[in-house]
Amino acid sequence: METPSLLAHLQPLVPDVPLEAVPAGDWPTVLVPAAHIVETCRAMRDALGYTVLSDLTCADYLPREPRFEVVYQVVNLEAPARARLKVALPGGAPQVPTVCEVYANANWAEREVFDLFGVTFLNHPDPRRILLPDEWEGHPLRKDYPVQVNVPVRVMAPLQVTEDEFIANIQRQRTVLSKRS
Questions:
Q1: Burial state string for 20-48 with b = 16 or more CB within 10 A and e = fewer than 16
Q2: Helix pair 37-46, 3-10: axis angle to 10 deg
Q3: CB 3.0 to 4.6 Å from 161: which of 10, 19, 165, 178, for a disulfide?
Q4: Tens digit of each residue's pLDDT (9 = 90 or more) over 108-140
Q5: Which burial class, exposed, middle or buried, applies to 16 when counting CB atoms under 10 A from its CB (0-12, 13-18, 19+)?
Q6: Helix, strand, coil % over all residues of the chain, rounded to 5
Q7: Cβ distance 6 to 83 under 8 Å?
């Protein structure tokens, strides 16, 4: 399905939503306003058969404004067909409603986008970081994130062990495994 055809099928399902075709070389791509992404995803799933959210990611286009694009890739397994929905967000405080109620697997992907790009998903059921520690500052996939990170050097255990330490380690592991049996 081409983008104009997808728009022709989708627009009557969400008549109050100003959808825009986006040029793309591979899949039909539609730009959706952030406030209407949930109802658009619901229409794609329920009426057009795009039942699978195969990916949800983000792109940072600094210094362009709107800076971010959240990208939803959906699949219709019956057709088979693929489509892409994009939501453009400003750089100041990027926010978009969660689509977890439409596509349950969006939960972790939205947490990942928050963690790495700082996009907030409104009404998300579990808005914690998923990849980085809670005390991490910033969002590392943003283009303005500092490349140099000042982290104190940690001295770890030596990489080589003596023959006696090696034998002791193996015996300790065997003891633990035998207690599990």
A1: eebeeeebbbbebebebbbbbbbbbbeeb
A2: 100
A3: 165
A4: 999 999 999 999 999 999 888 889 888 888 899
A5: exposed
A6: 30, 20, 50
A7: yes
Largest CA distance in the chain: 75
Residue 172 tokens read as 């300790």
Phi, psi of 89 (to 5 degrees): -130, 145
Domains of the chain, CATH where assigned: 3-149 (3.30.460.80)
Of 59, 7, 62, whose CA–CA distance to 32 is shortest? Answer: 7
The whole-model pTM stands at 0.78
Handedness of CA 23, 61, 65, 38 (dihedral sign): positive
Nearest to 19 by CA among 50, 55, 28: 28
Q: Letter for the amino acid at 126?
A: D
How far is CA 148 from each of CA 141, 145, 152, rounded to the nearest angstrom? Answer: 13, 9, 12
Give, rounded to a whole angstrom, the gap between the first and last alpha carbons of the chain: 56
Whether the pLDDT of residue 141 is over 70: the answer is: yes
Which residues, 6 or more positions from 57, have their beta carbon under 8 angstroms from its beta carbon?
Answer: 70, 71, 109, 113
